[in-house]
Design a protein that fits this description.
Number of helices: 11
Radius of gyration: 22 Å
Strand content: 15-25%
Number of domains: 2
Largest sheet: 7 strands, parallel
Bound molecules: 2-keto-D-gluconic acid
Helix content: 25-40%
Shape: elongated
CATH architecture of the largest domain: 3-Layer(aba) Sandwich
CATH topology of the largest domain: Rossmann fold
Distance between the termini: 30 Å
Strand order of the largest sheet: 8-7-6-9-10-11-12
CATH superfamily of the largest domain: NAD(P)-binding Rossmann-like Domain
Amino acid sequence: MSRHRILQLCPLSPVLDRSLSECFEVQAWWTQDDPAAFLVAAGAGIGGIATSAQLGVPGAVLDALPDLKVISSRGVGMDKIDLDSARARGIAVAGSFGTLDDCVADLAMSLVLDVMRQVSAADRYVRAGRWTQARFPLTTRVSGKRLGLVGLGQIGQVIARRAGGFDMEIRYHSRRPVADCAFMHEPDLQALARWCDVLVVAVSGGAGTRGLISAEVLEALGPQGYLVNIARGSVIDETALVSALVERRIAGAGLDVFADEPNVPQALLSLDNVVLAPHMGSGTHETRKAMEDLVLANLQHFFEAGTVLTPA
Ligand code: 8YV
């Protein structure tokens, strides 16, 4: 029996790459000398795509695959996949939903703790031998403070649970209030920023949230307020954020995501009130394995049963 042909857009992991090639006839898009010519010559008959949230599916690839039926992505961010076009063509789209919420929420809390208690800065202080000269300056208490969540989806809800363990008071902003939710919904994002001690961004990326954390929101957060972003760089007006941090118009930021990854604004590198992480929210052995297992399982389930297990 001939195997289903899938297009793999990027290397995923040695184990997953091998499993995909064992189960399907895989065409490796990223190894093609002329990817556009390859799609013209070999695009027909390709029924599936394996990709990652970071890469998504470029529009030109989607357009060049007339027989595409399923996209399976490693990750939950769908901001680089044109879901409307996929839906219009009846293409099933799957993400790694349900696998990474804990680890991303853990990292969000790490950044909250680090930027407010200055753990990374203190580590640099000790290593530089500065403790022998002077005591480390006082930091900011986390327990019992006010945490404002931008987005209360699956990851946001786990962050809220974690923050509850630190006796934090929680309010959230989203387009619509979440049903049966104990936390107060704040329809005005600037009001949430004014209210909270730390604003944690956990909303989906994409056109609908681009620049949501604007200069005005940062101004409302104010010189005592901290910002943490584990969502997408695009959600924040990064130019406004950099000047707010440089000029200390907000207290600090913990950032796992950036507008132009892996490039981080140069001005942030020398600031001690900023914690910088290399988009590693889901990056644990356990979670990446679960995500990768699901990339394969979604494709297999689709070709056997016509549906994906974790649809977008
Ligand atoms: C990963 C992510 O960094 O799930 C997402 O949307 O951004 C992260 O989990 C990455 O996309 C894994 O491929």
